[in-house]
Design a protein that fits this description.
Elements lengths: L1 E5 L5 E5 L11 H14 L10 E3 L3 H9 L28 H6 L12 E3 L1 H18 L6 H20 L1 H11 L18
Parallel strand pairs: 3-4
Antiparallel strand pairs: 1-2
Length: 190
């Protein structure tokens, strides 16, 4: 979990708050309690956080739907009554002081939620690409399948052998990312 903010001198700042393992099933309530615990540890009241961005998995969406303060649900960035930006106010807070002090705010609510744009766009790009490949009129189905078969052999080899991992890193100077559905689909990303 990371925090990002803009200081009064308009400089961007970031801080890593936590990197914890969630044991057991990652149900919405387990996720919510973990996020609330991290916010509480750093004295971050849900009312001072502009919003929290997460992936679009159903457990995340439900966690924020179930654990938001009743009057904040469906407000903020996702509400679009009109395009007038006059309703938004900018509040400043001493984030360095908040993150460095040992405040313990007891809260059982999560801040406003925003879904990650990349996680929203990824299925669109993936679906469109799959449709393009499946359409025989473009003549690329065999070529794409052949290329992905070769890539799959490489991904499998690199994931099973540290020697292959080291060799591929020496050649391309970066780790090879194999496709995965739990993050931005690496199939279509360099």
């Amino acid at each position: 979990m990371t925090a990002h903010w803009i200081s009064e001198d308009l400089k961007r700042h970031s801080a890593a708050l936590a990197c914890t393992r969630l044991a057991g099933s990652h149900t919405f309530d387990v996720v919510a309690e973990s996020l609330i615990g991290i916010n509480t540890k750093y004295g971050l009241d849900h009312r001072i956080i502009t919003f929290t961005i997460t992936d679009n998995r159903s457990n995340m969406v439900k966690a924020f739907a179930e654990y938001q303060e009743p009057d904040t649900v469906n407000k903020g960035m996702s509400e679009s009554d009109d395009d007038d930006d006059d309703d938004y106010t900018v509040e400043s807070a001493d984030v360095d002081a908040i993150l460095s002090c040992d405040n313990s705010i007891e809260s059982s609510f999560l801040p406003k939620h925003m879904r990650c744009a990349s996680h929203t766009l990824n299925p669109v790009a993936t679906t469109d690409f799959d449709r393009l490949v499946a359409d025989e009129s473009y003549g690329c189905k065999r070529l794409v399948r052949s290329a992905f078969a070769k890539c799959s052999k490489l991904w499998n080899n690199v994931s099973r052998s540290t020697k292959s991992t080291d060799a591929s890193f020496e050649i391309v100077r970066m780790s090879l990312r194999s496709p995965g559905e739990t993050r931005w689909n690496a199939t279509y990303v360099l």
